[in-house]
Amino acid sequence: MASARQVNIAIIGAGGVGKCFLSQLEWLAARRQNQKLVLTYIATSKKAVYSDSYSPIALDSVVSTLSSSSQAPLALPKLVDYLAASGTKTVLVDNTSSQDIADAYPSFLRRGISIVTPNKKAFSGSYKLWQDIFAAKEEGGALLYHEASCGAGLPVISTIKDLVETGDEVTKIEGVFSGTMSFLFNSFAPTSGAGGGKWSAEVAKAKELGYTEPDPRDDLNGLDVARKLTILARYAGLEVESPTSFPVQSLIPKELESVASGDEFLTRLPEFDAQMEEVKAEAQKEGKVVRFVGSIDVASKQVKVGLEKFDLSHPIAALKGSDNIISFYTKRYGSNPLIIQGAGAGGDVTAMGVTSDLLKVLAQL
């Protein structure tokens, strides 16, 4: 048996966020006095590193060890058994956006394996999965944190949980929940009125700078924002069935929804610039700017995602770069909302959200 102070870490996913997390974990493990953090399993979709004896995987060389490995990842039911059989407290870090892994969370939690993750799909999938996850967590006495599933490293999930669990009543939530959409509209329709290129050019620029998914349609369809709103609405007490159960405005022209590739989409997008110019001009006539926002009205149970016009003095209009802003209106805070603002995307800040969740788990194990 390992000593009581040891905590085993298992990681799935070693992409952008995964690699940033590994370097933060290495830093953390070297400084952790009272607990020995031991990486015993790491996998991508194709490769894995682990041993039957749960021997430690060196953190300073883990990326190269993984890329040269000939081991295949364990199937999820087998991974549950493997982690549960170690006899040592174990935390699973899921740095993927996989629905299959999300669907397996109840199996891990039921066996006492704690989870930290930025994976939105576990918490914005079907309402039944949401219920199953939290029931399994109680049943297995495991811990579960997913701060980075909404707003990267910004303290969004912890804030709404604190508000609700201390008896405050959330009445409304609104904001810009996508770093991509923030960047696009801050460039396309700046508050200065002057400037702002053609819509298609701004989308191409955002892709070039790495602000969009490889296929920009995955951002422009609004589903990423809808997933984040689903999570927040559920914490606010609404039984939202799924991210497709409320109005979500897509910014993909109908004619381009089914083109074969992201590149073809970008090539043809200029044909539709006039539509977005019209939207921008209409807002300007009223002395406003257009932004892509999400809102939750708790009393009327209304959740929606799409374009809205804002006065130039409004905090949402004045955002810079790819920042997110989330405003919580509650009984206690009255007409002046509690506002969280800052970088809502990027490997390092997302990994920070995961690492800070890991610290919360370690403090309670």
From TrEMBL:
Binding of NADP(+), residues: 13-18
Keywords, ordered alphabetically: Amino-acid biosynthesis, Methionine biosynthesis, NADP, Oxidoreductase, Threonine biosynthesis
The residues that hold L-homoserine are 213
Q: Which domain of life, per UniProt?
A: Eukaryota
**Domain Homoserine dehydrogenase catalytic per the UniProt entry, residue ranges:** 155-359
| GO BP | homoserine biosynthetic process; methionine biosynthetic process; threonine biosynthetic process
- What does it catalyze? L-homoserine + NADP(+) = L-aspartate 4-semialdehyde + NADPH + H(+)
Protein family per UniProt:
Belongs to the homoserine dehydrogenase family.
UniProt name for this protein: Homoserine dehydrogenase
Recorded source organism is Neurospora tetraspora
